[in-house]
């Protein structure tokens, strides 16, 4: 292994792909950790590949955005090419999905909106990424999201495209229909690919899968995808509609731009995530043991950690409620079966002993949104702290709702709960910092 490249001291190899090897290094002059991407020696004689590698460095050097990996330098040494870039310590979405199976819908939407921001920026600079996939999306330990690997990006601000017309280039499972056909691409192709990634994050599987009769590229071009809610009913319908619009076969039917997708995702997230997006990602990485408690403490304030604990308690409470519901339903079914058996076994004219079944009270759901945050008390009983990932299940009827924050006066109001499912929850918004607030909607 190389020991030095320019003014950088090689520490170790981080990753290796078909074209390049990535090293972790220390830039001595600035005492900072960097990543160095090196084109493999056996490929340095290929003129087209070396030009593509150079163009990746040129394209990235011209892009300055918080959701894109930064390039610091470009080197030619030892008959090899090297790109010195920002080192991001964290986990990519590919490895995260391998670890978790699928992601909570709010976490997936937060990742997607950050990638969409990056795409909107590069599309404005006349660059098409052409390889949006989980392995090229990195989540940093402090909760940032970075789009990586512009190795096959199409940059019209430089010279002509290095791929021939009619040639598809990219990762087959994440290609748009027009990319598969080798047609001229625009921003909507990257949006289609991001739609595939978002679908995979919330369902745990890709929307287009090959089988014995059809290749994945044939499926992408000709077959509709299974609606995301069929695989994961917890996904809100609004997010499913956003995904469906990304995955339209005709580019004209997709989101018009990265910005329009960003706005749609932000509208969706405003209903489910009230904390800072970086905070939510750090809390999730901690819950999956990607971050230790000490690392999370480094990035989050005590108040944010308290919110994360309340979030976990809310999820545990919901799971307990679901288990309780299953037990009750099973008991009712067992009693009904017993009654049918007694009726069939009893002699004609005999009296069947009466069995009284006490039905479970009807319930509904309430979603509490408090600014900035609040402890929630229902009918004098503490039920958690906002923000809550899931709505609160209550019996149908009036309930006294009290929100408490040590920095503001308590807020109390009666809320009327009606029969419904979690997605039909009554949304109760309170701004504790305002003089007056209209509750419920």
In short:
This protein is an alpha+beta fold and 441 residues long.
Task: Show the helix and strand layout.
Layout: E1 4-5, E2 8-16, E3 20-27, E4 32-39, H1 47-61, E5 71-77, E6 80-86, E7 90-92, H2 93-100, H3 105-124, E8 127-128, E9 137-140, E10 145-147, E11 154-155, H4 177-181, H5 187-203, H6 216-222, H7 228-231, H8 237-246, H9 258-269, H10 277-287, H11 293-299, H12 302-345, E12 363-371, E13 375-378, E14 381-385, E15 392-395, E16 397-404, E17 411-417, E18 426-431
Parallel strand pairs: 12-18
Antiparallel strand pairs: 1-2, 2-3, 3-4, 4-6, 5-6, 7-9, 8-11, 9-10, 12-15, 13-14, 13-16, 16-17
- How many beta-strand runs? 18
> In CATH, what is the homologous superfamily of the largest domain?
Transferase(Phosphotransferase) domain 1
- CATH level 3 topology of the largest domain: Transferase(Phosphotransferase), domain 1
CATH architecture of the largest domain: Orthogonal Bundle
CATH class of the largest domain: Mainly Alpha
| Count of separate DSSP helical elements | 12
The residue-averaged pLDDT reads: 84
Helix-strand topology string: EEEEHEEEHHEEEEHHHHHHHHHEEEEEEE
| Main pleated sheet | 6 strands, antiparallel
Distance linking N and C termini = 63 Å
How does the overall form come out from the CA principal axes?
globular
Structural class: alpha+beta
Cα radius of gyration in angstroms: 27 Å
What portion of the residues fall into strands of 2 or more residues?
15-25%
Biggest sheet strand order reads 1-2-3-4-6-5
Which bin fits the share of residues in helices?
25-40%
Which segments are poorly predicted (pLDDT under 50) over 5 or more consecutive residues? 312-319, 435-441
Taken together, the total number of domains comes to: 3
